[in-house]
Design a protein that fits this description.
Elements (H helix, E strand, L loop, with lengths): L3 E5 L4 H12 L3 E6 L8 E3 L5 H13 L5 E4 L14 H29 L2 E6 L12 H21 L4 E8 L5 H5 L1 H8 L3 H9 L11 H12 L10 E4 L7
Parallel strand pairs: 1-2, 1-4, 2-3, 4-5, 5-6, 6-7
Helix pairs in contact: 1-8, 2-3, 3-4, 6-7
Length: 242
Amino acid sequence: MARTVLVTGAASGIGAAIAEAFEGEGYRVFRVDLRALPGEDAFQADLSDPEEVARVAGWALARGGVDVLVNNAGFQHVAPIEDFPLEVWQRMLGVMLTAPFLLTKAFLPRMKEKGWGRIINIGSIHSQVASPYKAGYVSAKHGLLGLTKVTALEAGPYGVTANLICPAYVRTPLVKGQVADQAKNLGIPEAEVIERVMLEPAAIKRLVEPQEVARLALYLASDAAQSITGACIPMDLGWTAR
């Protein structure tokens, strides 16, 4: 019987690549996104709202549950701390930290009962290091690393692993959308943002492709990765080698 994976933020970017990769390997894929997606295995939800997160969990459990949970949904807001809106801060932590906690809480008991499960959280280099003007995103991604480690310790005895994929800048709409904000905050032309901000600390001077992240997620979901848990796995082009 095919295993089932639930992917949040599945409409585009990393989430879409992960959903497509798992589907290509024969998984049943539940796609969750703020935007409406076609198909009976898709659910539209605002993950900043705990009640909607609960509806996502109930919907998936009613369809047989989830073997692999991929917490990927997220968004970016770039602003100095003194200008960072509280409502944006709260929404960011809701989508990128509270929702993964609630979905893990909902699906972990059945994974434990089955003696097998995978929780794959999509972090960032900003799970380990910080950048200016990204207080909400960096805080959420650091918190997601902590949640991943705790989950790994609690779930390990039951055959369930939890890991965090930590890529550098990925070629996604989220990354493209912050170029203008970074240019404004730093006072440089947009054309210089990718080279001077996103790639300057990297040893490999390119963006990560979404399909690269998807292939690592597939590996972490495999039986070959059963000894890997509690890890922040870098795909950072050498960012953190310094």
